[in-house]
Amino acid sequence: MVSIRSGGEFLMEALKVVVELTPTPFKSSLPSTIYTCPYLNTISGNSISLSLSTQLSIAVFPFLRFLTMASDVGKLHVEVEVKSPAEKFWVSLRDSTEVFPKAFPHDYKSIDVIEGDGKAVGSVRLITYSEGSPIVKVSKETIEMVDEANKAVAYRVIDGDLLKYYQSFKCILTVISKGAEGGGSLVKWSCEYEKAHEQVPEPSIIKDFAVKNFQELDAYVLAH
């Protein structure tokens, strides 16, 4: 046992550091005990009769573990300029169940609608990728949001190879007109993910695949 002066201050400072290091989006998820450590109520004056290791285990270690878990959550974003008019590009994206396997057989073996119509919120699609796909061979996704007016759609992966590496994987796709007729479009793609474990890299390969798809779809739309 080690008698430590200003033990209460030590604990409070340790807790303060943990709170300050926590990214803002996750502060609300911190356990309430981080602000009201029960051991602080037993301190008399400025002395505390706890070993240093005990203080650390009480005040810091559980929350450092929380921060490690939080660091496995990430985001990726990319913007791609295409020559196709926004409306035509959007329509082709919405018809991807039929368009993609036909136009890009080197990437997509099949896309099957499991639930719904394949376009509305709640629809579920099973995507089987071609042999050249480096990581994902099969993916099941559900549509979570559709905004036809703003040409935006959100989907979440609910089953398949990708979930071996990421506990969750959600994407939002938006097509924006660049203004004048014939001026092309801006395609925005972003994803939020949570790694299955800390050794998993960020899904840059998925982002690159999405960019490749947009560029190939642009060429397809312009040719038809």
Short description:
With 224 residues, the protein is α+β, with helices and mostly antiparallel strands. The chain has helices at residues 7-21, 24-27, 52-59, 61-70, 86-94, 96-103, 204-223; strands at residues 4-5, 47-48, 73-82, 108-115, 124-129, 138-147, 152-160, 166-177, 185-195.
Report what the structure shows.
There is one protein chain. It contains seven helices and nine strands; from the N terminus they run E-H-H-E-H-H-E-H-H-E-E-E-E-E-E-H. Residues 1-8, 21-61 and 63-70 have low confidence and may be disordered. The chain is α+β, with helices and mostly antiparallel strands and 224 residues long. It starts with a strand and ends with a helix. Strand 6 (138-147) and strand 7 (152-160) form a beta hairpin. The protein has helices spanning 7-21, 24-27, 52-59, 61-70, 86-94, 96-103, 204-223; strands spanning 4-5, 47-48, 73-82, 108-115, 124-129, 138-147, 152-160, 166-177, 185-195. The strands form two sheets. A seven-stranded antiparallel beta sheet has the order 3-9-8-7-6-5-4.
